[in-house]
Design a protein that fits this description.
Length: 435
């Protein structure tokens, strides 16, 4: 574990390259490379169209010159004839040079198409390698999730059985044979929970190892290959433009072409693949480094009996709040009327209650439900042990039905067919029991 942590921390360097800036950024790299490939193919197509247009144009000029020499030159005097002949000859020479130039452009087009094909093939291979590595890491994460959920379920089952054993031991009416049977089930559940815990811990360790391999070895290696491919593409484009610039110079075009050569040569010289790589890596930086080391989220066992505790990596749950004061006048008067089913006599001037009125109970905010199915649903946030017969006990995560509410902090509720008063702070309203 210590070595994994050290490798993780040691790999967090700030670099303006793919491996340092683009962890988990393969989607961005893929889109960028696909766009580059498309642009490269379009550049090759452009050079091809220019070559064909120039070849066709210069071919027409050559035909025109040939026809003109055959029919018109005999009309001029000697000195004029020499000048016109020179004009036609130079136009033919220019046409010849331009045809040669178009052939060189055609070669550049073919080179561009070939590079795009090889570059695309290499890119697919690298994306396939990335998909394989990412799939392996995702599979390991799913294994960890499955192991964790299985362990938590078995530990919870064992804890529930232990609670049942404790209650049965305290109940003097429990049959000995029944108690023995439940204890055996509890022991078996505890062993299963411990086995699941060991499996979960092993899976956590394996996941940390694979996480380190994925983020510190596999991803950096793949990202370096993608960067090399990007550098290769930038180098090819730069070389292609240099060839075109040199082509302008080598064919010895007129002065205007010399100017074009100087301008283009200056622009090509300014191409800096390293600066482009750094700019791209910084612009699209994912900000992702190797994830934090995964700690086991365990259940702590008291002897051979498990009791659920919070995972080590999360904050511990808050303690149950204190119950409201039990000397609340409204609460105890409600309890009294609930237990005796007797109403106080009406004071002078008051109308007596209707004959079919229901017995008085807790402070009324509506009709009391007749069972768990009526009233507002609430989820228990903590276990609650009743302090007297009028209070209702329940377990954390139980779904209760709130029959009546009171500002004293005590509500009247039902659960599992039983009714009684509960502290309002121990439940959360509006909870779907099936969520």
């Amino acid at each position: 574990d210590a070595s994994l942590r050290a490798r993780r921390d040691g790999g967090r360097m700030s670099r303006s390259d793919f491996a340092g800036n683009l962890r988990d950024g393969f989607d961005v790299i893929n889109k960028h490379t696909v766009a580059n490939l498309k642009a490269t193919k379009e550049l090759g197509s452009f050079l091809g169209r220019v070559s064909e247009a120039q070849k066709e144009y210069m071919g027409k000029i050559a035909v025109i010159c040939t026809k003109y020499k055959a029919k018109q030159l005999s009309s001029f005097d000697a000195t004029v004839l020499n000048a016109v002949t020179t004009l036609v000859t130079e136009l033919e020479n220019v046409a010849t040079v331009q045809r040669e130039f178009s052939q060189q452009l055609l070669k550049l087009k073919k080179d561009t198409q070939m590079f795009a094909k090889e570059h695309g093939k290499n890119h697919k291979q690298m994306m396939s390698a990335y998909s394989k590595a990412a799939k392996g890491w995702k599979s390991q994460q799913e294994q960890l999730k499955k192991a964790k959920e299985g362990y938590a379920k078995l530990a919870k089952d064992a804890s529930s059985l232990q609670t049942k054993v404790t209650k049965m031991e305290q109940d003097m009416t429990t049959k000995a044979t029944k108690l023995v049977s439940v204890k055996e089930k509890c022991a078996a559940a505890t062993e299963k929970a411990k086995a699941a815990e060991r499996e979960y811990q092993d899976t956590v360790q394996e996941t940390n190892q694979k996480q380190s391999t994925y983020y510190e070895q596999e991803q950096p290696e793949l990202l370096s290959k993608f960067q090399q491919a990007e550098e290769s593409w930038l180098g090819f484009i730069k070389d292609l433009l240099e060839q075109y610039a040199n082509l302008l110079f080598s064919v010895k075009m007129p002065e205007r072409w010399d100017t074009s050569y100087n301008l283009l040569n200056s622009a090509v010289t300014s191409i800096d693949p390293g600066a482009d790589i750094s700019t791209f890596a910084q612009k699209h930086a994912t900000g992702i480094t190797s994830p934090q080391y995964i700690d086991c989220e365990v259940f702590q066992f008291d002897g051979n009996l498990p009791a659920a505790t919070a995972p080590a990596t999360t904050a511990a749950p808050s303690a149950p709040p204190e119950a409201p004061p039990r000397d609340s006048e409204s609460l105890w008067s409600a309890k009294k009327s609930q237990s005796t089913h007797e109403a106080d006599p009406p004071e002078e001037g008051e109308e007596p209650p209707a004959e079919d009125a229901a017995p008085q109970g807790p402070p009324s905010y509506g009709s009391r439900g007749s069972g768990d199915g009526e009233g507002e649903k609430a989820k228990a946030l903590y276990d609650y042990e009743p302090a007297n017969d009028n209070e209702l006990g329940f377990k954390e995560a139980d779904t209760l039905t709130i029959l009546e509410k009171d500002d004293s902090g005590w509500w009247f509720a039902s659960v599992n067919g039983k009714k009684g008063f509960i502290p309002a702070k121990y439940v959360e309203l509006g909870t779907n029991p099936f969520s």
